[in-house]
Amino acid sequence: MKRQLGTALLSGTALLLATMLPAAAQQGARISNDVVRIGVITDLSGAFSDQSGRGSIAAAQMAVEDFGGTVLGKPVEVLTADHQNKVDVGSAIVREWIDAQNVDLIQDVANSGLALVVADIVRDKNRVAIFNGPSVTRLTGDKCTPNTIHYAYDAYALAKGTGAQTIKQGGDTWYFLTVDFAFGHGLEENTAKIVQENGGKVLGAVRFPLNNLDFASYVTQAQASGAKIVGLATTGMDARNAIKAASEFGLTQSGQQLAGLLLFDTDVHALGLEATQGMYLTTAFYWDRDDETRAFSRRFHERVKIMPNMGQAGVYSSTLAYLKAIEAAGTDEAGPVMEKLKSMRINDVFVKDGWVREDGRFMREMYLMQVKKPSESKYPWDYYTLRATIPAEEAFRPLSQSDCPLVKK
């Protein structure tokens, strides 16, 4: 009888300890200012607002809600701001967020120039930034930091996917329509190099000013080149205007094909399949890939009336991963959280078996898509046919070519 009583007491003690451990762990957790704050800085009013903007904000909010709204017993808040595509405006907001409002994570940053500045800010102030909007590869190159992750895509992956894979599809001669500033130059140079490395030829290029409205002369030059693929080294409204002009001048009807080097579902939706049919593009996410992506995307659509693109789905995924890292680290301090993020394998609606490389590059497979003909689309937002799946190690710049100071040579 005494032995049974002793066993019961031990079992009761073990149960009590088991129920106390989570509470004790939370009491030992370190959350600065008793709240985790995530600042989504994005384009709400300019050329990139469709591809980021309110969709990126909704994605972050959905992630917080799906996580439960708290982490380690503390609330999670989402702050939002419009950087207006001005580096000085955006950097001032980020500094104020960190200094006055104790923001822990800077999210999205849909502007490459601003992203390079934010990388320095979070390094100096020991916070975390996860970039889903910008494409500039310097974020995992000479501007890499221990505090930053480049998550959804980058210019190298877009160039590698579209350049190399379209050659395999027969598109072995290229001509570029390039927006005349660093972003466009980088897209053209990366893609041209990959085209040539894979046995293709670049027949020429023409450059146009940012926010250009008249593409007639540029499209006729591309037609005259005879190139099988006309690469659009631009994005946003410039890409849309170029595609409209190409359709109006019969470029694709004459047998040439357009390749969007940074094109989103929202661009195809805005232009329609008649204008975009046959185009090639590379993406990290397609809403209609499987039952899981469809379920998530329909929830997203209920909020913002568009289907999520790769940047917005990346915001959702990386926000979830960040909160899981805080939970695992027992703190929102940047160093331990980044250590956890770099040790995790991430599996969610955006990615299967993704991981963060030592240079801060998030590694995941990419997809070459071709835009459907109007007759092939069966329902709203049914826009793409998968042409190739590109493994992560093939899609992104190899570490052997990296100039990131964090990479061990």
UniProtKB/TrEMBL annotation:
One of its GO terms (biological process) is amino acid transport. Residues 1-25 form the signal peptide. Pfam families: Peripla_BP_6. Keywords: Amino-acid transport, Plasmid, Signal, Transport. Residues 36-372 form the Leucine-binding protein domain. Belongs to the leucine-binding protein family. This is ABC transporter permease. It comes from Azospirillum argentinense.
